[in-house]
Amino acid sequence: MIIQLDEAKRTLLETSEAAKELYNQLRIGDLERQVQELESRTLVPDFWSRQDSGKILQQIKDKKTTIEEYSKLCSRIEDALVLCDMGIEENDESVVDEVLGEVNEVVREAERMRIESLLTGDYDHCNAIMTIHPGAGGTEAQDWAQMLYRMYTRWGEASGYSVKLLDWLDGDEAGIKSATVMFEGLNAYGFLKSENGVHRLVRISPFNAQGKRQTSFASVEVMPEFDDMNNEIEIREEDLEITAHRSSGAGGQHINKTDSAIRILHKPTGIVVGCQTQRSQLQNKDYAMKMLMAKLLEIKQAENMKKIDDVKGVKMENEWGSQIRSYVFMPYTLAKDIRTDYEETDINAVMNGRLDGFINAYLKWLATSKDEK
């Protein structure tokens, strides 16, 4: 048992060294200076009447959260080392389970923070807007799109994000024709940008009496909810065609069955967005405008060839050969990312929202790809 404590101490010392590197990777010193600067701005007399006061307070909160998480990690490592040393010196086997449990926790937390340090894009801290569309294939593809919707909402809820269904269109017989979801919380876009692309499913069709193997596709579009969009995007009222309609779909309690649903057509680009889950037309319009502005700014950034690594305005072909990830239910079970080669064999766990392995592998791959350029 004492051998286990020796191994635990070695792991803790390695994690302590990794934490020192994290200080620079997370730019803790810069964050502390930024918090002081932002807090000084809250002391001006007219701060609470300014339009950006809420944004500044959120920035302070987010930066403090990172600083506090790092400080807590360092404290946990130190405390675990003290307990480990006591156990070794006193030959006390009663502390082994506690030490080993804490070692697992701090190693996991250090790895999470290391992954977080890879979120260096200008928009990574933003909320994420995700839209899911089935590819060709009718009911099969529409059912697959709904399976992806369930997978992502489960991931979001398990990861501590506020998940809001904004728009939903039922499939013809099953599944969905589209769904738009907002993930609210720090770094939502930074993590979910890994999911932008076409997802391929291989399974025995539940809609085919002959039990044939079926391949289906669905596209997932992920955009950040941009900050300060009004300064960069001008939307003229005459360019908009806004229509109200009765909400529909299987959103259950999320769907308000009144004529409050909103569809907005942006005439110059042909972009159509909608929201039907809020309680009033005004709220639905507000969310729909956020989606429209996000799409327009995405186009602007792509046209200017700026921030292309952060916002990829790439047209996705929802078909064979364009997928980023495959999900196979037979003759074996496997979920594999085409870009990173990361894979999981427990397909049910993946469909229940276990996506962190794919997301982390993508962020590492993306960081390596940038370093090689």
Features:
373 residues, Alpha-Beta Plaits, 9 helices
Measured by DSSP, the beta-strand proportion falls in 15-25%
| Total beta strand runs | 11
Task: Determine and state the CATH class of the largest domain.
Answer: Alpha Beta
Number of helices: 9
Q: Please describe the biggest sheet, giving its number of strands, its sense, and whether it closes into a barrel.
A: 8 strands, mixed
Oligomer: single chain
**Sequence of secondary-structure elements:** HHHHEHEEHEEEEEHEEEHH
Structural class: alpha+beta
The pLDDT mean sits at: 86
Report the helical percentage: 40-55%
Report, as a whole number of angstroms, the end-to-end distance: 48 Å
Any idea what the radius of gyration is? Answer: 24 Å
The CATH architecture of the largest domain can be named as 2-Layer Sandwich
Which runs of at least 5 residues are low in confidence (pLDDT < 50)?
Answer: 251-256, 305-316
Strand order of the largest sheet: 2-3-1-5-4-9-10-11
CATH topology label of the largest domain: Alpha-Beta Plaits
Shape summary? flat
How many domains?
2
Structural notes for this entry:
The protein is an alpha+beta fold. The protein folds into two domains: 2-116, Methane Monooxygenase Hydroxylase, Chain G, domain 1 (Up-down Bundle); 124-373, Alpha-Beta Plaits (2-Layer Sandwich). 45% of the residues lie in helices and 20% in strands. The chain has nine helices and eleven strands. The chain has helices spanning 2-25, 28-41, 53-89, 96-116, 139-158, 188-192, 281-303, 347-351, 356-372; strands at residues 128-134, 162-170, 176-184, 197-204, 213-224, 240-245, 261-266, 271-275, 323-328, 334-337, 343-344. The protein has an eight-stranded mixed beta sheet with strand order 2-3-1-5-4-9-10-11, sandwiched between helices. Strand 7 and strand 8 (271-275) form a beta hairpin. Helix 1 packs antiparallel against helix 3 (53-89), helix 1 packs parallel to helix 4 and helix 2 (28-41) packs antiparallel against helix 3. It starts with a helix and ends with a helix. Residues 251-256 and 305-316 have low confidence and may be disordered.
